[in-house]
């Protein structure tokens, strides 16, 4: 008799579990229908529309007094650099080219000469992209042909920090053609 009551209780438990599973599947179906209705309410945008909306927001962001020096087609790296400048975590090194152009290069406070060279490369490549200039520059040739010079001293050791050469915020570094040894 006990076996029969245990068997009946087991059958009841199975039926309760089946009902719970059925209820869960009904709720899931209702949720899916609700999502379909929500999807119909949401506007669909093309990729071009999303880019336009993003660029409009970015243009408003760049109008902020803190970021007003940045170009309209700003990159995340440029925004982060500008913010680091405002917080004193970075410095601007003015790099003077032979044609008289001054490039404001932003590097972190404890940057090495190699970091400065990489920042110059990023700056020039972004400028070329925006202006539609030369697409490829041989940086190996540039660094073989030119030195960076600060107050008459060549920045030859890429591992040394800029502070070791005495370079501080807003100091000027020049590109100077290397002289060939004969």
From TrEMBL:
GO biological process, one term: mRNA splicing, via spliceosome
Top-rank taxon: Eukaryota
Protein name as it appears in the record: Small nuclear ribonucleoprotein 25
GO cellular component, one term: U12-type spliceosomal complex
Ubiquitin-like domain ranges (all copies): 89-182
Source organism of this protein record: Hippocampus comes
Pfam families xref list: Ubiquitin_4
